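Troubleshooting entry. The earlier prediction with 5'-O-[(L-methionyl)-sulphamoyl]adenosine gave an output that would not parse, so I re-checked the input for stray whitespace and re-submitted. Clean input:
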Amino acid sequence: MYITTALPYVNAEPHIGHLYEQVVCDTLARYWRMREPTFFLTGTDEHGDKIVRAAAKAGITPRDFVDRVAKTFRDTWDTCEISYDHFVRTTDPNHVRVVQDILRRVHQNGDIYFARYGGLYCTGCERYYTDREAVNGKCPEHQQPLEHIEEENYFFKMSKYQEPWLRYLEQNPETIVPEGYRNEVLALLRTDALGDLCISRPKARLDWGVELPFDTNFVTYVWFDALFSYVSGLKAEGEKVFETYWPQVHHIVGKDIVKPHGVFWPTMLLAAGLPIYKQLHVHGYWLRGESKMSKSLGNVIRPLDVRERYGIEAFRYFLLREMAYGQDATFTEDALVTRINADLANNLGNLVSRALTMQQKYFQGRVQPLGEPTADDDDVISAFADALRDVPQLMEKLAFHRALEALWKAIDQANKYIVVTAPFTLAKEEAHKPRVGAILHHVLEVLWHSALLLRGPLPQTSDRIFALLDVVPPDKLPTELAWGRHFEPGHQTKAPEVLFPRIETKP
Ligand code: MSP
């Protein structure tokens, strides 16, 4: 499995929209690593006029500017437990080499030509807009007036590959998910308006980019450069790595960049003689109030601020649980606090602490035999059999909110199990001690399975629960429930810790 994030532009700092994508890919990568060899790529998109303008504003050279901001991105992901295998920068010499090799090849094949072109251009999007796409002469994304630009440039014969790609997508509809975004791409491909793609910028206008290998007066259009990072990031680890993982590539991107990924990229791959990606997964937007959160609108949430206040695990949980993958979601601190208190502190946190407290109090931490299962035991076992079946399936579909919901349904059931079986009452009589030991053993199995299913979304919490249970986490995802086989009687669990402190809210 090969998983990629989009590469954020480094014209400003990371925000939660970027973090969301990282958390999604990280969760998937951690999940898939338990099943098969997996490679997770992220990095930064560093060329183009947006970057030049941001550097000029900061009063430093583009080179110094991208070095600084790329480091901020990388450091942020490192502190947020993002387990990428390679961090690609589009200014890496290896990346530049890969882009130039491909350009050379596509040019030699006759798929790049030189022509004069005039059109409406948005510097924010770094692309031309057709008259139909413009809204009252303005960019629909940035609401800024489009500029009429006329110049000679190199063009990629995208139209030549439009039909083959359309046919492929019709025959392999699952290549773009969710369906709504596939339909968006199909509609674009079924029009004649697409034409060819301008893939160069004259150096006289912009010199911060990958130089065209066949004309040193031009640099490459930023998308023709950046998309190939998905190839160069793997090749940086060796041809073998590329050959192993490329056939399994899954791109995760936000809905604003469906066109470059759904239209430009597959045609570029066809022209470069590379297989089309396995799947493109499109996610929605995090909003503040009604509006989109973005650097240009200045209403951004900084990941490290939220992490500082609530911890990265609580933040990860919120991002995955609150957004129905594919749709938009609204970020509010109130919703975050509610989730932390209800799901993490009360539900999961209490379960862990109650179980381990009783285990210490009644048995000095020593695990007792399971005994014959009762109807109550069967209910909790079947709740986790369901979770072990459903959570992985939902993860694979990127339905993270439903995967967590499915796990929490089982955790809820386990909390009810403690209330119904009442080990704290039974423990008052010595004769009931074996049953108390059996109930607690079941609850330890509950914790083991919860920790297992949290390995993707909440890796630190998972590690902490396994450490409290004093067992080594499995590195493979079991396909069958092996209830009762994870603790030898006599094994000693540790004293509880508070996993998620309750956040006090104002009355
Ligand atoms: N540089 C391009 C991607 C090149 S990929 C070869 C780019 N960069 S970006 O910084 O604008 O966005 C990076 C990713 O973050 C995109 O997938 C984008 O959709 C996502 N998000 C940016 N803002 C977002 C939200 N507010 N919410 C969710 N994701 C959003 O596009």
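This one parsed fine. The CA atoms of residues 290 and 330 lie 8 Å apart.
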